[in-house]
Task: inverse folding
């Protein structure tokens, strides 16, 4: 492979500091702790907020802006990742990382104060304030995620990196376990505002470690800054993410004018971005990196990995709530087995890679397990046991675990030292874009498939049932095709609600009949079309003379009460049967829909596998063979 030429004004190799060789191990450990704490902040904030959102919405009266609390964070974070990576190559990891943490902490403090009286009408409502401040949080968090992974490559030799890359994957896994539990505890026992304030002490500790012990970790580059490229990254990614977000919503849809305009703006910005980057001396994203097969195929694989991974988490919770019938809290904690598998796979694969000096076979084995995990999940049905679901999740976690850190290791080992920051952040950018696009596509699949599955299952349930039950199921099938499936069955009436409505209806019917009987004339109710036809016909047969005495009225009322009682019992039995059949149909429909999504996930995971196959099978250099890409042309050696 041809060695990439360094950018203009690049110091000579012998003039640049090799931090992997000059820093003592104790300092490296302190830097690692500070970096992991910073990364933990960003990862935790993506999970801790979810359990507090219902309380936040109630306090700030912002149900209509619910999704934007998360969307604003992701928009700002995703768009800024490649920009921070390039800036860290130029100015050093330390200042960019410290800047990101400080901005993130300011955003956290402001999020905690959203809706307080002293903000007045700033940005409008309290919910809008929270959304703006979440965007500020995401703006800072992007520096944490993009720079943290590059620091590993700065302070550790390639032969050691694999051991520590696994720790970064473990941080994301641990945060996904701690986040929902801590968020629920703080919200229930203190205040939802502490979901954001809790970031402050952790962030200050991270700043102390980084400020006191971390060197600047600069590449020595002093090129011109690609301001136009940075702006075009924003004008490409933000409209694209907005279009995908809006397109997946029923309010807009994929053919909406606004959505199409956003896609067009994104496409124009992408063309301009490629034009500008091909001519700038130090672009935000050097297009020459795509000539490096490890980078090109690695970021492609990470794009598909991001799409498949996030889909696994989101739609598994939907399955557990709507099919297994577990609570939202239990559905959240049910992802812990997946996380444990991910952490184990991440750490163990890193240790194996460090010992064997290779990582491509480990990635492929992990992806094969991932495909197997998705295949198992594609067999989910309405009768799959909870323990079986847990087992499937562990398999999936073991497959995803090795891929997350080892792709970073592969990319970092294949590029020059001055490219590590931008190459690492680009991989993160592609993975986050994959997650966003995958979520939108899978969401559209969910809506369209469920809108078909529910009516089909309800009509299948009506087969062989008596006319009254079949009619109710048919009516349910018609309404199901137009329902907002994103809400699941959480708003559906319970059997107790239905029984109470039936009892109330019969009580009112008997009350109206009793009033008519006591008046001595049944004309008013025999003409009432709201009453059952059989009851009206029966009342019409009662001779007026029977209502002339109190004894006669009592006998008529007793007979009618008996008839209504039989009809009420039959109606309650029919309601129970209809409810059981419709509930079963809904569970089968949801299960079939989710299994269909996992079938698509198999295809996406296979694309990640196929994208990995062309990657060169690099061998990590052993100690003394070189710690950067310069002497090796980006490679230690290639096998096969």
Result:
């Amino acid at each position: 492979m041809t060695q990439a030429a360094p950018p203009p004004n690049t110091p000579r190799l012998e003039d640049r500091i090799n931090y992997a060789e000059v820093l003592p191990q104790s300092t490296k450990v302190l830097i690692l702790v500070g970096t992991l704490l910073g990364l933990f902040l960003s990862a935790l904030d993506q999970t801790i907020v979810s359990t507090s959102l219902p309380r936040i919405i109630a306090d700030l009266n912002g149900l209509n802006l619910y999704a934007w609390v998360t969307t604003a964070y992701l928009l700002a974070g995703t768009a800024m990742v490649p920009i921070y990576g390039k800036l860290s190559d130029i100015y050093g990891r330390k200042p960019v990382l410290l800047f990101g943490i400080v901005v993130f902490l300011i955003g956290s403090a402001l999020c905690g104060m959203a809706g307080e009286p002293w903000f007045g009408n700033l940005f409008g409502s309290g919910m809008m304030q929270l959304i703006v401040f979440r965007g500020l949080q995401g703006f800072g968090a992007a520096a944490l995620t993009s720079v943290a992974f590059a620091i590993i490559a700065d302070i550790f030799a390639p032969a050691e990196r694999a051991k520590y890359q696994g720790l970064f994957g473990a941080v994301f896994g641990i945060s996904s376990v701690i986040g929902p539990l801590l968020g629920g505890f703080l919200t229930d026992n203190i205040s939802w505002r502490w979901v954001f304030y809790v970031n402050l002490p952790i962030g200050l500790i991270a700043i102390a470690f980084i400020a006191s012990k971390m060197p600047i970790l600069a590449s020595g580059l002093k090129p011109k800054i690609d301001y136009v490229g940075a702006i075009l990254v924003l004008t490409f990614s933000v409209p694209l993410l907005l279009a995908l977000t809006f397109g997946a919503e029923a309010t807009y849809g994929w053919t909406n004018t606004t959505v199409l305009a956003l896609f067009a703006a994104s496409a124009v910005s992408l063309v301009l971005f490629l034009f500008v980057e091909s001519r700038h001396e130090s672009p935000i994203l050097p297009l020459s990196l795509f000539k490096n097969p490890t980078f090109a195929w690695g970021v492609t694989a990470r794009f598909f990995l991001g799409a498949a991974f996030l889909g696994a988490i989101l739609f598994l919770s939907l399955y557990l709530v709507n099919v297994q019938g577990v609570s939202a809290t239990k559905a959240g904690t049910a992802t812990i087995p997946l996380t444990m598998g991910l952490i184990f796979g991440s750490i163990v694969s890193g240790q194996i890679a460090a010992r064997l000096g290779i990582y491509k076979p480990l990635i492929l084995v992990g992806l094969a397990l991932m495909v197997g995990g998705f295949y198992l999940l594609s067999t989910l049905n309405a009768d799959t046991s909870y323990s079986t679901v847990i087992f499937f999740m562990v398999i999936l976690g073991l497959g995803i675990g090795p891929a997350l850190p080892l792709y970073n290791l592969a990319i970092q080992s294949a590029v020059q030292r001055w490219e590590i920051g931008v190459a690492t952040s680009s991989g993160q950018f592609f993975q986050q874009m994959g997650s966003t696009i995958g979520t939108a596509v899978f969401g559209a699949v969910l809506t369209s498939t469920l809108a078909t599955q529910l009516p089909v299952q309800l009509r299948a349930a009506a087969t062989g049932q008596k006319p009254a039950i079949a009619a109710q199921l048919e009516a349910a099938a018609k309404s199901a095709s137009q329902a907002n499936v994103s809400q699941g069955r959480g708003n559906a009436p319970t059997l107790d609600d239905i029984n109470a409505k039936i009892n109330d209806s019969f009580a009112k019917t008997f009350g109206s009949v009793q009033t008519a009987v006591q008046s001595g004339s049944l004309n008013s109710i025999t003409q009432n079309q709201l009453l059952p036809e059989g009851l009206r016909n029966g009342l019409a047969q009662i001779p007026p003379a029977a209502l002339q005495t109190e004894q006669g009225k009592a006998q008529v009322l007793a007979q009618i009460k008996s008839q209504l009682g039989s009809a009420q019992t039959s109606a309650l039995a029919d309601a129970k049967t209809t409810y059981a059949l419709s509930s079963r149909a809904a569970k089968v429909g949801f299960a079939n829909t989710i299994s269909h999504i996992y079938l698509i996930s198999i295809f996406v995971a296979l694309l990640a596998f196929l994208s990995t196959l062309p990657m060169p099978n690099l061998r990590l250099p052993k100690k003394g063979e070189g710690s950067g890409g310069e002497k090796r042309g980006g490679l230690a050696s290639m096998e096969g």
